[in-house]
Task: inverse folding
């Protein structure tokens, strides 16, 4: 199947228009016309080889929404015309303990990413969603509630599920205090979900200008972190802190935010390891944990939750010729709060 895409032809080269061939639709696959694809900071990390050697040409994009245009002979989950979403992975081993528990993102054999990898046959290159069309096995795609605006849904497929999953795992409920570090694509979804789950939300941001937006999204408090001293009044105040920042941070100052037995969940992927002061963990039996996206059933649960609570991402819809500028603006923390590519312009 021929696809028009936006691709990086090498690390650090700009994103350009590029035609590729996708695999043909198999028995259990569906084909879709992509409507919108979100720009995740992980796309930038991978295009720029900040996470190690990558496969080029690379078509990034793992926040994909569109409409089903064709189905394979054995497909029962979708029909032509359905609104469909695809996230960060397109396959997994389906047999390990994690896969059987619906936690495909933690597949013991490794999940198959949506791009910058080979499919499970070991030879087909996986190309992502900065494109006009896509092919996906029905088991790894989700339904989109009819009441939600498609452009605002695209970021839910990565940014949304990545924050929803730890908020649910750590039992977010009314009465809890949740801190969100970084008000970018991921962080702003964390604010919306934590608020919808009834928690009191505090945003820790190094961009003072984001205060009004944070409050409008449901935060009660906004702490500007450009002076690290500003964290002090908030020490020992939080049941849960979600850390979406990938930049180098004074991590121990942020661990001080945790109450007794509370947890910081690390979600952003910093280039350098953190220097954790174990004394800060001992004092208060604090924990530091990680979390990565969410499984297929949980993605569907998250989208259904969004349908009920009318939650979508705050997006800036862009044309294909703006992607390189959008990358620069994202790196500069100047994103309000997710760039989404209108795929009809590719
Ligand atoms: P993003 O939109 O660029 O947001 C990151 C935010 O971090 C920025 O908006 C900024 O918020 C804050 N920040 C940036 N530089 C900072 C600095 N020098 N000091 C303090 N704060 C800084 O990125 P994203 O798409 O949300 O992704 C965030 C990270 O999560 C990336 O590393 C991405 O690869 C990773 N990720 C992880 C998963 C997972 O499954 N765990 C999934 C998707 C993405 P303020 O302006 O408010 O400070
Ligand atoms: Zn992502
Ligand atoms: Zn598995």
Result:
């Amino acid at each position: 199947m021929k696809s028009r895409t936006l691709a990086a032809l090498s690390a650090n080269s700009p994103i350009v228009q590029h035609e590729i061939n996708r695999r043909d639709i198999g028995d259990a696959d569906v084909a879709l016309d992509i409507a919108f694809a979100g720009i995740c900071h992980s796309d930038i990390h991978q295009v720029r080889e900040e996470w190690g050697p990558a496969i080029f040409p690379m078509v990034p994009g793992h926040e994909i929404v569109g409409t089903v245009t064709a189905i394979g002979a054995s497909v029962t989950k979708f029909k032509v015309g359905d609104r469909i979403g695809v996230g960060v992975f397109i396959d997994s081993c389906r047999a390990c303990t994690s896969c059987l528990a619906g936690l495909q993102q933690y597949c013991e054999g490794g999940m198959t990413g949506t791009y910058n990898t080979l499919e499970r046959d070991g030879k087909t290159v996986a190309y992502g969603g900065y494109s006009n069309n896509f092919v996906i096995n029905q088991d790894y795609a989700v339904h989109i509630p009819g009441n939600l605006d498609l452009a605002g849904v695209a970021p839910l497929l990565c940014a949304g599920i990545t924050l929803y999953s730890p908020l649910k795992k750590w039992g977010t409920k009314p009465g809890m205090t949740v801190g969100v570090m970084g008000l970018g694509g991921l962080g702003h979804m964390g604010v919306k979900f934590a608020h919808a789950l009834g928690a009191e939300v505090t945003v820790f941001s190094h961009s003072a200008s984001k205060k009004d937006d944070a409050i409008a999204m449901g935060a009660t408090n906004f702490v500007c972190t450009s002076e690290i001293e500003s964290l002090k009044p908030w020490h020992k105040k939080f049941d849960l802190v979600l850390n979406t920042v990938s930049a180098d941070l004074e991590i121990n100052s942020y661990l001080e935010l945790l109450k007794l037995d509370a947890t910081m969940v690390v979600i952003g992927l910093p280039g350098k390891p953190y220097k954790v002061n174990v004394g800060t963990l001992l004092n208060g039996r604090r924990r530091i944990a990680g979390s990565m996206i969410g499984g297929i059933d949980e993605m569907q649960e998250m989208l259904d939750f969004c349908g009920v609570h009318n939650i979508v991402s705050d997006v800036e819809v862009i044309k294909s010729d703006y992607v390189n500028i959008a990358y620069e603006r994202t790196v500069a923390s100047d994103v309000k709060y997710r760039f989404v590519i209108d795929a009809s312009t590719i």
Observations:
- The pocket of zinc ion (ligand 3) is lined by residues 92-93, 96, 98-99, 107-109 (CB under 6 Å).
- The longest helix spans residues 296-309.
